[in-house]
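Reminder to self: tokens first, then the designed residues, so the page reads top to bottom the way the pipeline ran.
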């Protein structure tokens, strides 16, 4: 469930420079308000690394390529999205001075359903993949909807503050000038575990915020 609330507002009054008789009656009000919107996390993401060691680079690469093809095929029939990303091959020496090669490839698995994702994660771990992170966050559609809600909330409060300020000063809002929109905060994924055990969906909401500022022209 989405929750929307107002964070706060700030205002500054400044008289416009006198340019004509009409300008003498204008006052510029600088006003800002911040709106927030919240929602329960909707997207679970697992970051994993496929890796293989061999005495030569080609062999290490072949093993990782085979693992990558297998996990991609297994994920194709499930409700999760798998992305194959960074790839690296490096040479190193053990304590005895023997040279070996290590090939690695990063895979990112994401989905709105925890159970099928965690089953795949556990399967890949049993086959030698390393789990580096598991986190809840907001999917793009939910995040965009929250941004719209937060922006609308900020605008409503900015308008209300402008009307209230004008009324207290015995003036009227003529128009809004130079409206600015800022998005100072983006929700970060919430890390849940570094193992295949299923994380519970947290009740802590993820929050997005939007700040709206404007020069408001007031008249008597």
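Designed residues (220 positions):
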């Amino acid at each position: 469930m989405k929750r929307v609330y107002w964070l706060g507002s700030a205002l500054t009054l400044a008289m416009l420079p006198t340019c004509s008789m009409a300008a003498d009656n204008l006052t510029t009000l600088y006003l800002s308000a911040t709106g927030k919107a919240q929602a329960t996390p909707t997207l679970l993401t697992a970051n994993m690394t496929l890796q293989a060691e061999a005495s030569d680079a080609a062999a290490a690469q072949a093993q990782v390529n085979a693992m990558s093809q297998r996990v991609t095929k297994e994920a194709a029939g499930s409700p999760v999205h798998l992305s194959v990303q960074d790839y690296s091959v490096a040479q190193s020496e053990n304590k005895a001075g023997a040279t070996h090669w290590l090939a690695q490839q990063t895979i990112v698995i994401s989905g709105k359903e925890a159970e099928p994702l965690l089953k795949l994660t556990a399967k890949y771990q049993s086959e030698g993949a390393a789990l580096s992170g598991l986190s809840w966050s907001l999917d793009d559609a939910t995040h965009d909807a929250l941004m719209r809600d937060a922006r609308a909330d900020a605008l409503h409060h900015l308008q209300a503050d402008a009307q209230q300020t004008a009324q207290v000063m015995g003036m009227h809002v003529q128009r809004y000038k130079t409206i600015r929109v800022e998005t100072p905060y983006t929700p970060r994924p919430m890390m849940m575990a570094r193992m295949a055990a299923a994380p519970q969906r947290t009740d802590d909401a993820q929050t997005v915020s939007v700040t709206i500022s404007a020069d408001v022209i007031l008249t008597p």
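Residues 3-41+140-219 form a domain with the Translation Initiation Factor IF3 fold (CATH 3.30.110.170).
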